[in-house]
């Protein structure tokens, strides 16, 4: 079986993706869901409701029908310090899968797609957003302090820089890390492959993903829980487009996850504009492997965002 996967689209070239991968198994593994939970003594502060709309057009590019076409997509994360997913509806029936980290995936069985035919999968999500980060319990903090792919904590270049940026408090350390990354790394626009924190620190260039990995790596070396998040950034209810997709870092300070977006020059503000689809983790434990947004179970299928 071959699998079509997406990191995210390059809007300057095309929204059609043709990257194939043959190692992602198609399965519906049910896992215990250990999502973050709000602390009992804090009121609900998710006061701004956003409507998120997006659609995928799945096309059969060959002259014969494709049977048992399958498609999977990340859905908005249920609970974050700045986000509480209320409802999700799709134009096709789907089975939902959840991970320990709080990620959700919708699995779609699209049946038969005729020669050169198309199927449209549309989503409408209601999400309550917070202007300030809410306090949430941190389950298993150790997983946000370890080395992972693209987060090379043990490399001397990263450990040395983190010590140079260390402040008198965790918050001051994060401010220094943010300032360094936002000023020293050059944004080069979309790149098709993840390169990671070490690459960004050594070459001082990258896209939003490299900014994210850099902040996460430097924070973790200093013992500050940090993670990468992927999703959409926008200010109003709208139908999102490929260029709205973005990766950013979050750090855990004072009982809450705070957004640290060095690429967009945003330090812990405008949290209501960041809608999370995925909390990043190693491909080996991710619901959709190395994909940032979706998986299609046939390399003859192409996808574009509508």
From TrEMBL:
Read off the Gene3D superfamilies from this record.
3.10.620.30
Q: Enumerate the spans annotated as Transglutaminase-like domain.
A: 200-264
The record's listing under Pfam families reads:
Transglut_core
The stretch of residues making up the signal peptide is: none
InterPro entries in the cross-refs: Papain-like_cys_pep_sf, Transglutaminase-like
Protein's recorded name = Transglutaminase-like domain-containing protein
Q: Which organism is it from?
A: Candidatus Endobugula sertula
């Amino acid at each position: 079986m071959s699998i079509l996967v997406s990191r995210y689209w390059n809007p300057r070239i095309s929204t059609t993706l043709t990257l194939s991968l043959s190692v992602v198994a198609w399965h519906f593994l049910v896992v215990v869901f250990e999502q973050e939970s709000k602390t009992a003594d804090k009121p609900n502060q998710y006061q701004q409701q956003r409507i998120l709309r997006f659609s995928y057009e799945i096309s059969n590019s060959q002259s014969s029908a494709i049977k048992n076409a399958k498609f999977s997509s990340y859905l908005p994360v249920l609970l974050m310090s700045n986000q509480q997913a209320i409802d999700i509806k799709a134009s096709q029936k789907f089975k939902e899968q959840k991970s320990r980290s709080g990620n959700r995936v919708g699995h779609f069985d699209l049946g038969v797609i005729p020669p050169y035919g198309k199927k449209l999968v549309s989503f409408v999500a209601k999400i309550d957003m917070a202007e300030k980060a809410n306090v949430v319990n941190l389950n298993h903090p150790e997983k946000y302090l370890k080395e992972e792919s693209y987060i090379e904590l043990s490399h001397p270049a990263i450990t040395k820089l983190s010590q140079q940026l260390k402040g008198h408090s965790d918050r001051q350390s994060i401010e220094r890390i943010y300032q360094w990354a936002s000023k020293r790394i050059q944004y080069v626009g979309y790149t098709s492959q993840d390169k990671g924190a070490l690459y960004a620190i050594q070459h001082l260039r990258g896209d939003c993903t490299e900014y994210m990995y850099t902040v996460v790596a430097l924070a973790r070396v200093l013992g500050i829980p940090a993670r990468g998040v992927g999703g959409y950034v926008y200010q109003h209810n709208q139908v999102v487009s490929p260029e709205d997709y973005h990766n950013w870092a979050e750090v855990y300070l004072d009982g809450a996850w705070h957004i640290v977006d060095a690429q967009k020059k945003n330090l812990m503000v405008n949290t209501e504009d960041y809608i999370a689809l995925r909390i990043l983790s190693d491909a080996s434990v991710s619901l959709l492997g190395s994909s940032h947004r979706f998986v299609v179970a046939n390399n003859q299928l192409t996808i574009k965002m509508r």
